[in-house]
Amino acid sequence: MSKIYLLSGLAQAQLTALREASIEYSSWDGNTVSIPEEVLEQTLRALNMNANKTSTEFEDVVQLTLRPVARSETLSPTVTRVLSAEQKRSRENYIAACSARAAEALKSARQSLEQQRREFPDRIQLFVTDKRDATFCRTVPNEEALAETFDAQFEELLQVPKVSNVRVTAQALLVNTETLYASARETGRRHEVGKFLIVIDLEGKNGGIRWFNATRRVNSIRPGMNAPNVYEDGTAYQDELLVTFYELIARLQFAPLVDMAIQFIEEVTNDDLATLINNWPLVEEGA
Fold first, then answer.
1. How far is 5 from 61, CA to CA, in rounded Å?
2. From CA 24, how far away is CA 34, in angstroms rounded?
3. Which H or E run contains 155?
4. What is the per-residue pLDDT across 127-159, written as a single tens digit (0 to 9) for each?
5. φ and ψ at residue 79, rounded to 5 degrees
6. Total-model pTM
7. What is the number of alpha carbons within 13 Å of residue 181 lying toward its C-beta?
8. What's the pLDDT tens digit per position in 50-76?
9. Phi-psi bin for 206: left (phi > 0), alpha (psi -120 to 50), beta?
């Protein structure tokens, strides 16, 4: 199956250039358009740009980040053809056929993702509940011992590096952090991600844990991202660490959970997302 490529934040002049080049594109969301793989090279020529490619959560859907064509780079020259009337009809039919299949693939991918998103929070809550029951049914500590344990855990939570404040409601643990930074792999240079509010649902509801950037939102693989690996709604890009987060919520081990949640922002381990930190402000050397 051919891939679908996403372009975000195109200016009106760039969209006009695509239309003038007879390039068919579809609206993905309010800020993003999609193009089929068959017209990728033609699209880059029309925009006079090259692009970096980043995987998305959709299979066979790739996010493009445009960049100027470097002097050392050359794009394939445009081949000028004079088409017969029959060839023009065939070209129109080809574009229509590919566009229809691309639209169908995008619709299917969106429906599949939405279904997974609807089911995922319930599965997390069930996991947390079952794991917590199994953990605390092994022993039956008295209330005084439990109170002492949780008092010590709260003190430990306050001592987690880069935690500036902790609040507790009936349903959630609210943790404010100092400014968090992450380094780009390819350059080693630091970027400022921002100060965060980390929301941990005590029952594992609403995805269990969410991160909200209180300093800035950045347009990346989606508009308004909280971090390279955190979507605009505060949920995390699927990562193997998430299972550990849910395990710690179930065991009421919130100090190590918060410590790991901070590291999750500062150390982007997913290869597909590692380069996205370059979208966040660069920290000047010596700052």
1. 6
2. 9
3. helix 143-158
4. 555 555 555 555 555 566 667 777 788 888 889
5. -95, 120
6. 0.54
7. 11
8. 888 888 877 778 888 888 876 555 544
9. left
